[in-house]
Design brief:
alpha+beta; 11 helices; globular; 439 residues
Length: 439
């Protein structure tokens, strides 16, 4: 086949459209910006995934923001896309930017760290849509002296952590990183327009960071019942003000929509979208009078691992099905040089069970959960701690994590690439704490 021939597995859209009308269908004149463009399912941060409503207006705003403000691309650019297109980052920032700017797309069915640079060079990719984990995987590939010799100049995405930011930028010769923060359903977003390092950028929309008690899993309010704004560089729960200019379009379920709205935040009758995320301000220099921000963590009954938000309730329900488990408490713990928090489950065994059958339990976890949701650590706990309302307490468990000096209970670990839990010993703990375990 010649270079311009259409491969046998593809359709030549130019030929397919040759006999079609060149003008817009008459229905397009009746379509409004407020109408629903599509539904996109969330990762399920507080339960099962919810169908978030996305209007034509918000889709076009996001796509234009990516094309003009983030990637700054045009018809001479090629966007490298290896994220699934049911993922908001790939669909809105990648495909949307291409449609708005005329840039071409190189779409890969599945991410491959070893094929990344050869693909970029072969297809002249100048832009890259990423999530932080992809960048970490790429840094783990063997270093080559010419890694920086490629056409890639700009990238846009989320989750690129400060500990790998500079290394990635320098190694691959990237000139511009437009890190962003946002969600499919949210009414507030941040973009690193000014190409500052280690920040999600600025936000011109009305928002606030308020004090949040992570251990109690609740917003802190003052004696008058109102939320308290955080100090500079203090992590706080991000809220987006709901107004006519910044509506919260919500979900297909009205109950789910109401659950994400905080009311009487700073005055009686006001309403704010609860992002469920902790952010903090940082000093990153010029920002047109706007603060720069940095993502800190998720709050509540979730942990973020492998760039996915995982509901601890759902993980717990699956674990509790195992016949040897009486009750479990799932939470997130930090691993050095790994993004987000890894899952850890404290288990109490069923009556009459002296020890957990690791083979059976490992098979159960591998069968019932996707890789990112599987707990990395297990702790066999004799009795589950609960508060006065019988809600399981996570605070002390999070703090102790898998530190064998603080935990007297048996602790098990699922090593990278393994399919079976094994006892965590001091030697492997040292490897984890040194950031050399490969998570």
């Amino acid at each position: 086949q010649g270079e311009t021939d259409c491969p046998g597995w593809a359709l030549n859209l130019e030929e397919e459209a040759a006999d079609e009308e060149s003008g817009n269908p008459p229905e397009t004149a009746e379509t409004t910006m407020a109408e629903t463009a599509l539904y996109i399912f969330t990762s399920g941060t507080t339960g099962l995934p919810k169908a978030a409503v996305l209007s034509n207006k918000r889709y076009l705003l996001t796509a234009t923001l990516s094309a003009k403000g983030g990637l700054q691309c045009d018809e001479n650019d090629c966007i490298y896309l290896c994220l699934p297109l049911y993922h908001g980052t790939g669909l809105f920032l990648g495909v949307g930017a291409a449609c708005c700017s005329g840039a071409s797309m190189f779409i890969r069915r599945k991410f491959s760290a070893s094929s990344f640079l050869p693909d970029v060079r072969e297809h002249g990719a100048t832009c890259f849509i990423y999530i932080g984990e992809l960048c970490r995987y790429l840094l783990n590939t063997p270093v080559q002296p010419d890694d920086f010799k490629n056409p890639l100049g700009t990238m846009m995405g989320n989750g690129l952590r400060p500990d790998v930011w500079h290394e990635f930028k320098n190694r691959f010769g990237v000139k511009r990183i437009a890190e962003f923060y946002g969600s499919s359903e949210g009414n507030v977003a941040f973009v690193n327009f000014f190409n500052k390092d280690c920040t999600v950028g600025v936000c011109p929309l009305p928002h606030a960071l308020v004090k949040y008690d992570v251990d109690a899993d609740e917003v802190v309010r003052n004696e008058k019942g109102f939320c308290i704004k955080t100090d500079k560089e203090e992590p706080g729960l991000l809220l987006g003000k709901i107004s006519r200019a910044t509506p919260f379009e919500g979900y297909t379920s009205s109950d789910a929509t109401d659950s994400k709205i905080l009311r009487d935040v700073f005055k009686k009758g006001d309403a704010w979208f609860n992002t469920g995320d902790l952010l903090k301000t940082i000093d990153a220099g010029f920002g047109m009078g706007l603060d720069h921000y940095q993502f800190v963590d998720r709050v509540g009954d979730t942990f973020r691992w492998k760039s996915e938000n995982v509901s601890t309730n759902e993980v717990g329900e699956i674990i509790n099905i195992h016949p040897q488990v009486s009750m479990c408490n799932v939470y997130g713990v930090e691993i050095p040089r790994a993004d987000g928090r890894a899952g850890m489950a404290a288990l109490t065994l069923a009556e009459g069970v002296d020890s957990l059958d690791l083979e059976s339990f490992s098979n159960h976890v591998n069968k019932e959960m996707p890789p990112y949701a599987r707990p990395v650590f297990l702790r066999i706990h004799p009795e589950m701690d609960t508060n006065s309302t019988f809600k399981m307490v996570k605070g002390d468990l999070r703090k102790q994590a898998y530190d064998l000096e603080q935990v007297d209970d048996p602790v098990y670990v699922m090593k990278p690439g393994a399919k079976r839990y094994e006892l965590l010993d001091a030697a492997y703990l040292a490897t984890i704490q040194a950031g050399e375990a490969g998570y």
